[in-house]
Specification:
174 residues; 4-stranded mixed β-sheet; 4-stranded antiparallel β-sheet; single chain
Length: 174
């Protein structure tokens, strides 16, 4: 099996990747902070406010913490991606990906990268993307919407990855 496709990777794709990393890596911390905020609002409002209103205060606190965290992180990522674009002069770029029995080869922005399957840290599939992790926080991005034969290609890639990559390094959809 050989898969070869050229993708256009945009700033939006990069931002979505970094947001995906946030939810994957920081979700537990985020929930702890939100629960602490809810507990503090409960302790503050308890005895001063009727029980039904305490629940509302807790829900508002949870929403405010989650919203503030999401917004600040998202704006930070967008700024980071824009600065990277200004520094390198590359925002949107074309990326050619070739996957066969030998591994993965990617050509983008005049550079070529090759990795054997044993060197891939993780392969993760989301609703819109297939991420091939080079390190814990760097991945080649394959937008599913740009795949020529999306369902057939994804089925073949899933089968290949399941054969050559340990299960603990895979997070694929069915």
């Amino acid at each position: 099996m050989e898969y070869c496709e050229t993708f256009t990777i945009t700033e939006r794709d990069a931002v979505k990747f970094y947001m995906h990393l946030l939810w994957r890596n920081q979700l537990a911390s985020l929930l702890v902070f939100a629960l602490i905020g809810m507990l503090l609002s409960f302790l503050f409002a308890s005895g001063r406010v009727p029980p039904a209103e305490v629940a509302v205060v807790m829900a508002v606190t949870l929403g405010a913490i989650l919203g503030a965290f999401y917004l600040s992180y998202r704006l930070g990522i967008q700024r980071k991606v824009r600065k990277g674009k200004e520094k390198t002069g590359v925002g949107t770029y074309r990326q050619t990906v070739r996957i066969n029995g030998f591994g993965v080869k990617v050509e983008a922005a005049g550079k070529t990268g090759r990795l054997g399957f044993d060197k891939l840290q993780r392969v993760e599939e989301t609703r819109d993307y297939l991420y091939l992790y080079i390190t814990k926080e760097v991945a080649w991005i394959l937008p599913k919407a740009q795949m020529a034969r999306r369902e057939e290609d994804l089925a073949a890639l899933r089968e290949l990855f399941r054969r050559v990559i340990p299960e603990k390094q895979l997070k694929l959809q069915k």
